[in-house]
Structures
1.
Amino acid sequence: MTKTMAQLPYHYGVKVRVFPSTEQKRLIKRNSDASRFIYNEMNGMNKDLFWLKQVKIPITIVLNRIADLTERLKKPSTAISNSHGWLNHPDFDSLMKANAIKNYKTAWKLFRQVHQAGTPKFHKRGYTQTYQTSCLYGAKVLEPAMNNGSVRLTDTHHLWLPKLGRLRFKGLPPKILERANDIRIGTTTVSMDAVGHYFVSLQIGSEHPFVAKQHAIESKVGIDLNLDNFLTDSNGQVIENPRYYRMIKGKLAKAQRKLSRRARRAKKSQRRLSESKNYQKQRLQVAKLQLKVANQRKNFLHHVSTALIKNHDLVVAEELRSKNMLRNHALAMSISDVGWRTLLGMLAYKADLYGRKFLTIDPRNTTQTCSHCGHVMTGKSKLTLADRKWTCPSCGTLHVRDHNAARNILAKGLATL
């Protein structure tokens, strides 16, 4: 019996850039808009049902509406398509509808588990597009692979998607192409960013690992993330903070002021922004600058995280809550620029991928504690951000602040094992 994606032991994700034709771009936009509409329709029905149930007086029209909404939410795909006949047009992918409903239910599930982001909210229309479809395999397919499903590779440079047809792509790693017969495709996301680049993200699974497990090298490291330099490890090595946003901040601010002026002129002339060519041209320039910073930061974080995981059996870091730290307005821009949470996320999944161990520990007193004798600096002697070097009053050891913190982080991590 063929295993499903969930039953496969190894999963991986790849994102490739695609180059659709004008007709394919139209279909992507239509499916993206329909996906957003279905999500919002589900949200609207649930909100109506919630508020109607707050009415305690047995009013017939209210009770009938509650019964109608409850019945429609049992089979939302059929109910929404029956109410909005345009969704039955052949341009729309039926699996796009199913995935939009599934994503809404997943949002509720995450809310119940985490209770941080709040209940699902209505999705606004913007300059990006996205929708999801799924790869299905026919009953006659005995061994699902990357070349025999509804989403499939036709050759090393083209893939096939439902409704869209054949798309040229680039960026698929050779190690995936070489094992195409051993890999099956799951959920597929088609997207367009604010610059107008199109991408397809493939969830793939296999019976065999995608990356060879690294050999044990008996190396453990603690890392201290900070703003003065990006990272200091327990061995004393320092990685400088590239500050990509700060390098481009002046140029971006100038471009955004120009964009704001063009928006005011368009509104003064009673032109819609979507129809204002000058506004759209400048919006594209701003989006390109922002995309450049995001790509530079992501590339930097990938290199750092991969090097840490490949060169150490154990990596220990602080459990940083960037959301709370961003409340400090003096440091908010610098904290956003370094991308600490993204790095921690990368370290977590790469540790699992390469067979390493990654831990996060409570950062309490890691900076204020002497790694040599354990003395904690408190009261008037407590260290401030300006104290980059300090001498322990108990044992007299001279410490470099960040190196000392990294050693304490590693010690805490080892104590939890």
2.
Amino acid sequence: MGGAILSGLVQPHIEVDGGITVTNRTRAKAEPLAGLRGVASIALEERPDGNRAAVADAAVVLVAVKPAMVPDLLREIAGDLAPGTIVVSVAAGVTVATFESILPAGVSVIRSMPNTPSIVGRGLTGLSAGTRSSSDDLALVRSVFETVGEVLEVPEDKLDALSTISGSGPAYVFYLIEEFTRTAIGKGFSPEEADLLVSQTFLGAAELLVSSDRTAEELRIQVTSPKGTTERAIAVLQAAGLERTFTEATDAALARARELAAPTPD
């Protein structure tokens, strides 16, 4: 996800004062980023103090590591953050309270939840302000994530729920595409034909929804002629309990997010 955000920030029309410094554990991961416009890339295996060096003069610090790694990383960099620095969490399930309990009082914390379509500039990022962040801090971070898509500001108590929709949502869509493609192949289409049929159908439907002033329900009804083939298919999907299935699936994702947020025993 850090790479997706970086891809937005290095676009030709985006100017970042002071440039961008990124860190990775290995040289193999760091080297490809070194050639990007305005990017300094540090391999921690070659420079163990790289994280501290990267944040020392930074106005905004994005923490995009696995949730379990967050506390140790924050303790590592806490002493090198200047007052007024904005630290942005891109770690699923890790609360603002966790960040603020470790970082100095003069450091602002904002929690984010981007999704993978950010890689192609079609992302949706949820943002939640911390107790020490100002409206200006939030506006600056918002501008960062707007380089890779849309931004929705929500209270932190809604961010985990948001993650079950937009964060995990692309996987739900890909899963539906997988199954729909298998169905098309089962109807006699080649894998290549099935891929075109299904991907273009999903893409076209999404673009139609975005460009229309109608809701998804209204567009679905428009396609569903009374007593026609689509109506028969929709009836089967409704009988399968898709509404219940999606509720249960997102509830399971939300429960897991809360597990990740729970403090671990020392």
3.
Amino acid sequence: MTDAQETASANAAQAPLQDPGPAPVPLLEPREGIPPVIVTDDELARVTSAFAEATGPVAVDAERASGYRYGQRAYLVQLRRQGAGTALVDPVACPDLSGLDAAIADTEWVLHAATQDLPCLREIGMRPTRLFDTELAGRLAGFARVGLGAMVENVLGYALEKGHSAVDWSTRPLPEPWLRYAALDVELLVDLRDALEEELEQQGKLEWAREEFAAIASAPAPPPRKDPWRRTSGMHKVRRRRQMAVVRELWLARDAVAQRRDVSPGKVLTDAAIVEAALAMPPHARALSALPGYGQRMGRKQLDQWQAAVERAKELPEAELPQQSQVPNGPPPPRSWAEKDPAAAARLTAARAAVTERAEELNLPQENLLSPDSVRRLCWEPPGGGDGPSEETVGEALRGLGAREWQIGQTVELLTVALSATE
């Protein structure tokens, strides 16, 4: 058998079973029907007591109104636990769920794509101490499609109806079809968790997954993003600093309006309209109204508001204009490495190739084996100083970059070789 055949055989042996099999069974109704939405303190107290007395992991999900409302707050929280059934809680009517959180504090939470829901859950007092992320488990197990619907279908043989994922969940009252969809999202989460735990155990990856879940549960809330206006879509067209100042002033003005009105910023003024104004630098509101995004439907008061932001940017002293780019926190973009530091570029090429090969051997995504940012930072400033990198110094560097022990165990030797070979 050739080396390639041996690798293919090993991959096949540890790949998750994804046999298409029979057609999936449509899951149309929750087992106990659609539960009533919890909107009062008394109802919340009864649910809290029921979940405290129930057993086993608790499935948790949250629905936001992205694209409709300002921010990422939760507008519905779904929970399910054996012995308590499913609960749908309205966090607008019941904004403090810390009591419910305390009732399930020692319980493992099962979420799908946990990092998406944890920020909005923290805002209402819910913070897991232990969790199982079914999306991340699917990635580690080597599933090609890890959306909840695809995972439930491939692993459990049921088809979830996913037609309401992008609706405006701030709507009140919530329509019955939306509530059915929300309840079904947690209906099989614990079943999926159990099947994936068994799959990971068979592949020898369960402890890896547990390290990943623990890292998510213990991670602090991320700090606010610096200069978020720089992420305006189409920003690459804006070259001059004065134009960048227009983007900044319009972005900040739009954000204040969106926050005050509690609507998505894109519904107040589109990113494309911000960029158009920055490029044109209109001299007055009439000229602004002729630009795309500032048409006849926009009132004079709104036009004056946006034009005032443009004028503020025009009047800024040169010293207060934004810089062309932020001071980089870390290595420069890899595309410039060959010119700035050819040795670092060679290290990066060797390290990337080694990590990619190992990820393929383990049948998991490269970014889950080791984050690309960690690889870049390691290659730009390799540890070890004049003595050169060693497995000990490379391991310590990876820990400092936040790598988990299983990731270090799988990559430290090959990274040490890659870094040393280019010295």
4.
Amino acid sequence: MTQTALSGWTDLTAPSLDDFAAIARAAFDALPEPFRSLSGEVVIRVDDFADEATLAEMGIEDPFELTGLYHGVDIGRRDSLGPAAEPSRIFLYRRPILDEWCDHGGITLSELIAHVLIHEIGHHFGLTDDDIDRVEAE
């Protein structure tokens, strides 16, 4: 790269946690209505990385391997007569998503954040990773 090409990048910073949250909210708001309403009161949270306890529980040593996580009782397993479940949460992990985005090169950051968000919403609906992969392949 020439010095001129590099000079355009010297004043840029990585998107903040708040920037990521805004992009995720826009992606959620752009989902078709049936998905938004079925998602209910799911909470979307953005952190730099998953915490150590989460990584250990999942058997993940490299925190860059986890871009998102659904935490809660999926809607197919909820008992409407039982005690209220804690709110479902979707975690998006900023640093691993940025790392993956840099590796891809062919998609926008907004597209990647939306992809991770939709994947985690799939878990909220009770889909497994294999189910989600099949849907994406179609």
